[in-house]
TrEMBL record:
The keyword Transport applies. Residues 35-269 form the ABC transmembrane type-2 domain. The chain crosses the membrane at residues 37-55, 70-93, 114-139, 151-173, 180-199, 244-263. GO terms for biological process: response to antibiotic. It comes from Actinomadura rubrisoli. This is Transport permease protein.
């Protein structure tokens, strides 16, 4: 029987080693199902092309500018938000098949099980951002305010994805199975579209525009437009004027709520 490490340094090495192993497990699953991964990465590209070229001529950009450049930061953020479905499906599938119970019965670091999923999903998010950035560059999008601000914008996008990982993990652990992803879509899709990602909230009815302005995703979208120097970055509302602050605060709040819930749910499963 394996003896668990007793020193803090030993426990840290144990967590890191198990996290690396479980991250590699998730990546191996993707390698065996490349078609699903490719379709998932290309779906946002299809949305950009459809919105940018089919409907773009009918869209007004706040302050003027190219609509395709306006929606690219929005699609960056939507890709991060829709990633909740991938996290949920993977966690729920493991739980329904007994894989999670098997991990809990083994001398595996409990935090590594969740951290491994999170690390794999962040790598997937990086790949999605790379695909979206390439698509944006091909249709004329540019980051106009320098590499440092562009990297800061990408960092905010990954921070949003990091926070939503724990939401996906928690929902996956309380779900009855991966088929419950429909319920997650009912939650995620309104968040994605009721935002500033594709349209200016100022064009919505007042109450609906206010909801869109305070949407956590809108904070990230507006902050990225400001950091990239893209159209639509400025706004008169309080959330728009403090978009970078809100783009940090919202993910921290989501993490503070759902990370402990996910960890507690993992520890108490089966009781």
């Amino acid at each position: 029987m394996m003896t668990l490490p007793e020193t803090p340094a030993g426990r840290l090495r144990w967590v890191v080693a198990d996290t690396r192993t479980l991250t590699a497990r998730a990546l191996a699953h993707w390698a065996r199902r490349p078609g699903e991964v490719v379709v998932g990465l290309l779906f946002p590209v299809m949305v950009v092309l459809m919105m940018g070229y089919l409907f773009g001529g009918q869209m007004d950009v706040p302050g003027g500018g190219n609509y395709r450049s306006f929606i690219i930061p929005g699609m960056f953020a939507m890709t991060m938000v829709f990633g909740v479905e991938n996290t949920f499906t993977a966690i729920a599938a493991d739980a329904s098949k007994g894989v999670t119970d098997r991990f809990r019965s083994m001398p595996t670091s409990p935090s590594a099980v969740i951290a491994g999923r999170g690390a794999a999903d962040l790598l997937h998010a990086l790949a999605a951002l790379a695909v979206m950035a390439a698509c944006g560059l091909l249709i004329g999008w540019r980051a106009h305010d320098g590499a440092a601000r562009a990297l800061a914008g990408l960092g905010l996008l990954l921070l949003l994805r990091f926070a939503l990982i724990w939401l996906g993990v928690y929902l996956g652990l309380i779900a009855k199975g991966p088929e419950a992803v429909v319920a997650v879509q009912v939650l995620v899709w309104p968040i994605g579209f009721l935002s500033s990602a594709l349209v200016d909230p100022g064009t919505m009815p007042g109450w609906l525009g206010a909801i869109a302005e305070w949407n956590p995703m809108s904070a990230t979208v507006t902050a990225c437009r400001e950091l990239f120097g893209d159209p639509g970055g400025a706004g008169g509302s309080w959330p728009a004027r403090h978009s970078v602050l809100m783009a940090v605060a919202w993910p921290l709040l989501i993490t503070a709520v759902f990370f402990p819930l996910a960890a507690r749910r993992y520890r108490t499963m089966g009781r």
